[in-house]
Each structure stands twice: as C-alpha cells, then as structure tokens.
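Render this sequence as a predicted structure.
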Amino acid sequence: MSDKNIHKTGSVELRSRAEERLGAKGGIAYPPISVEDQLRLLHELQVHQIELEMQNAELLKAREDEAAALEKYTDLYDFAPVGYLTLDRKGTIRAANLTASGLMGIERSRLIGRSFGSFVSGKTRSAFAGFLEKVFTSIARETSQVPLLKAGNSDLYVQIEGIAVASGDECRIVLIDISERKQAEEVLRLTNEAAEMLLQANQAAEALRLAKESAEETARKKSLFFANMSHELRTPMTGILGMLQLALVEDLAPTTREYLETTLSSARSLLQILNDILDMSKIEAGKLTIEEKPF
C-alpha cells in the first residue's frame, strides 16, 4: 500500500472519529462529502465572502453619503437666509438655526427651552398666542407679523409662517426679517400724510388767495363807489355854494341873510366831508397826489 493511500485512510478515519465525537456532544453529523463537493462549497464560501465585502463597502459608502448629506443639510439649516424654529404646543423653543439666533440676538444654546412668546412685543403677544393656536388646529400654513424684542428693544419686525408636523406635538416656524419693509411702509405713510397736509395747506392758501382777491375787489369797488359818489356830490355842492354866495351879495333882510349864511356854512362843512371821503378813496386806490403849497 502506497503512502498516499495510507494518508487517505488516516484522514477518513480521523474525520470519522471527529464526527463521532461531535455526535457525542450533541452536534449534527453530516454524511461524508466528496472532494468535488468540498471544492464547490469552498467556492460558494469565497463568493459569499466577496459578496459580504461588497455589501460592506456599499454600506460604508451609504454611511459616508448619509454623513455628507447630513452635514449639507445642517449647513443649509443653520445658514439659511431665514430663521427656523421648532416649537411645542406651549410655544417652547425645541430647536433653532443660527440665523434665528442671530435675528433674535441670543445664543442658540440660550434659546432652547425658552418660550418664544417672551420675545414677542407685549402689545402683540395675544395675537401671537392666537396665531400659534391656529397653527396647531389648521392643516394649512398660517402667517402672522409681530415685532420682536431684541436686546430689550422692539427694533425687529418679523413675518412668521408656521405649520404643524404630522404628529401634532410640534410645529415649525419660519422667521423673515421685514423691518426694512416696515420702515419703508412707515416712511411712505408719513410721506403720504405730509403730502396730504401739503395739499390741504395749498388748498387753504388758494382759498385765502381767493378770499384776499375777493376782499381787494370789494374794497376796490367800494373805493370806486365812494370816489364816484363824492365826485357826483361835489358837482351840485359847488352850484349850491355859488348860488348862496351870489344870494348873499344882494340886499337882504337880516333874518334872510342869517339863514343863507347858516346854509352856506353848512354847505361848506358838507363839502369838506365830501373832500375827505374822496381823499380816503384815493388813498385806498393808491392814487392820492400830494400838493405842495406855501403856508
């Protein structure tokens, strides 16, 4: 018997004894398999090992992609141009991004656990409470505009958009800084008020101008009336004075002369009054001429 056959017989014997010992320990004894089956089994194990290695590589790649996506999402969340907050039903802040922290002027770690309502201006807290209630009771996105307290000052005006999550325990809100828009609206409002006041002032000035022109026209007509009246009255008065003076030249009875002299004196007084009225009319009309005479 050759050495090869002796070695083969020893291997079979060893395997048989090992299987007997395995059976004694409660193991499952399998029937002996051929070398061809052993090679096929070894091939299957190697293929399975390669498959496991490929699956492990894919799993590592998926984990790396997940980590990269999470990092990208974190960057997008933290550095978004608007503020993001997560609130519970009581309005307590559960999460916040860096933009929201910057808008509110408080570190993110100090925001978590605080009531968002405490940052709302006191005059609009009731309106915000109503908005938060609508967010949790409505399936649609709700919107509100409130001023926020920033470093003790109400210098931040935001538009809040909120929607509840599917569980209904939390809601996510977006903060959009509209302070500049509100300031522009306030400037526009003040400008419109100023324009309205200017228009009213112009209307008042126009009314005053018309009243002034009307008063001037009335005064002009009055002066013209007085001038015409004085002129028309002076003409017959001149005749009266002339006739009285001629009558006094005649030989008259003492009583008649006294009557005529009294009448002449009264006529002269009346003529002086007419002259004064005419002078006043000329002064108002700006046509008074000053005469220079020796005295």
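Summary. The beta strands are 83-88, 93-96, 142-150, 153-164, 170-177. The chain has a mean pLDDT of 81.
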